Amino acid sequence: MARRRKSIHGEWSSRWAFILAASGSAVGLGNIWKFPYLAGDNGGGAFVLIYLISVAVVGIPIMMAEVMLGRRGRQSPINTMRTLAAEEGLSRHWKWLGGAGVAAGFLILSYYSIIAGWTLAYVFHTGSGTFTGASAEAVSTAFNDFVADPERLLAWHTIFMVMTMVVVSRGVRSGLEQAVRYLMPVLVLLLLLLVGYAMNTGFFIEGLKFLFSPDFSKITGWGILAAMGQAFFSLSLGMGAIMVYGSYLPRRASIARSSINVAIADTSVAILAGIAIFPIIFANGLNPGQGVGLVFKTLPLAFGQMPGGVFFGTLFFVLLLFAAWTSGISLVEPAVAWLVENRGMTRVKASVLVGAATWLLGLGTLFSFNIWSDYTLFGKMTFFDALDFLTANIMLPAGGLLIAVFAGWLMSRKASMQELAIGNDAGYRAWQFLVRYITPLAVIAVLLHVTGVMKWITA
Questions:
Q1: Domain that holds residue 289
Q2: pLDDT in tens, 93-112
């Protein structure tokens, strides 16, 4: 029966279309904004090495499991998990695993859209020469004034949400596939141009040494867990996006090869972002451990002081915008797919409804940077901080853990072997060992660390 299932939403035209789409989902602000500043905060090379190991032993096995579940179910994550649980004689409550993924994607996009709106605004700020010759104080003041203005943030948030929902409303081949078919190659081209520019800063070797010369004296327990968490978040695992994209994967496509290719593409973009960014930082005598302000405070200052800075700075923020756009599309697709399947809505109506709800929830994040900045949850977190912590540190790892449990322990060997079609028993056993033992232990370590953080927050 599972072999004859078809998605009512259509399929990707090829395995490469899926790889582009899933890579677009995975490649986002997490790669180009978050990865460089985490590497900068945690000593560079040691963090990168642990991140790469985490992608291999944690990320890829869970991605294979999530794609496998999606393709076997051929529906939205909620309906897929309900169908597969029934197929295996398990509780219908497994549908809530799919529901948690859909909810996580919805919550993430609500604040992701605000940050993407900043990026969109900075395309125009940088292109107009706002930061040319500006001092560090002026760049910082410009950013602080920008996020303190709710009306300006609202405009950019609205524009980004409209951009995202227009693509989603057009369906799998006409919308999602066509968008990533053009956006992903352009994104990679822009990134390579920035790498080329970084090679001529005079500090390219210093940047490479920082990224690829491990100094384990600079890595802490928190840094190790941050690298593991970044690998998980970066690949878009546990948020329903990869599962629903997997439901559109053609039967003839190899899940293992496709997942590995997506992981390689995603990791390559993160590494290239570091290669492009750190030489620019060192060339301007700046500190690589600037945290979340790296992109919106440190880099505009650097671009404002260098020859051709207006052009290359604008190029950088266009790149960041494209990355955010492809991720935003994937975050909302699971909820839209569920409404089409369960409520009989057209994709246009479902996209408008989900987009409006996401936009509305995003106002909480938007206001947390200005008029609600004094209101905190748990005594220490703004609305944005709480939402980011809940999704990235609890919902996604927990979702990934349960996906590993379902695929590795509860799904029959016959079903998983049939769907994965790895081609040799040794390859299947290796995947099963990782998804049963290594991956769950790694995710549990992250969750235990989060428990410790929560105790500190609520103390």
A1: 2-458
A2: 999 999 999 999 999 999 99
